[in-house]
Amino acid sequence: MQVENKEFKPLIVAFCCNWCSYAGADLAGTNRLNYPADVKIIRVPCSCRVNPLFILRAFQRGADGVIICGCHPGDCHYTTGNYYARRRMTLLFSMLDYLGIEKGRTRVEWVSAAEGQKFAETMNSFVETIRSLGENKRLEDLRCKTE
Amino acid sequence: MQRIGVFVCWCGSNIAGTVDVKQVAEMLKHEPGVVFSTDYQYMCSESGQNLIKDAIKEYDLTGVVVCSCSPRMHENTFRKAAASVGLNPYMVEIANIREQCSWIHKDMPVGTAKAVILGRAAVAKVHLNAPLTAGESPVAKRALVIGGGIAGIQTALDIAEAGFPVDIVEKSPTIGGKMAQLDKTFPTLDCAACILTPKMVEAAQQEKINIYAYSEVDSVKGFVGNFDVTIRRKARFVKEDLCTGCGLCTEKCPMKKVPNEFNCGMDNRSAIYIPFAQAVPKVATIDASYCIKKKTGKCGLCSTVCGVGAIDYDQKDEFIEQKYGAIVVATGFEPISVEKFDEFAYSQSPDVVTSLEYERLMNAAGPTSGTLLRPSDKQHPHTIVFVQCVGSRCDAKNEKGKQYCSKVCCMYTAKHAMLTREKYPDTDVYVFYIDVRTPGKNFDEFYRRAVEDYGVHYIKGMVGKVVPENGKLKVQASDLLANEQLHIDADMVVLAAAIEPDKSARPLATMLTASMDTNDFFTEAHPKLRPVESPTAGVFLSGMCQGPKDIPDTVSQASACAAKVIGLLSKDKLTGNPCVAHSDELLCNGCSSCEKVCPYGAITYADKEFRMPDRTTAVRRVAQVNPAVCQGCGACTVACPSGAMDLYGFSNQQIMAEVDAICK
Amino acid sequence: MENTNLKERILEISGVNPRKCMKCGKCSATCPNYDEMEYHPHQFVDMVEKGNIEPLMASESLWTCLSCFACVERCPRSVEPAKLIEAVRLAVIRAQGGNHLKPQDIPDKLDDELPQQAIVSAFRKYSK
Amino acid sequence: MTYSYYPGCTLKTKAKDLDRYARASAAALGIELRELPDWQCCGGVYPMAKDEIATKLSSVRALIAARDAGTDLVTMCSACHNVLKQVNHDMAADENVAAKAANYMKLDEPYRGETKVIHFLELLRDEVGFDELKKRVVKPLTGVKIAPYYGCLLLRPGRVMGFDDPENPVVIENFIRALGATPVIWAMRNECCGGYATLEKKEIAEKKATAVADNALANGAQLMITACPLCLYNLTKNAQSGLPVKYFTELLAEALGVKEDA
Question: Nearest Cβ partner of D201 from C32, C64, C124?
Answer without folding.
Answer: C64
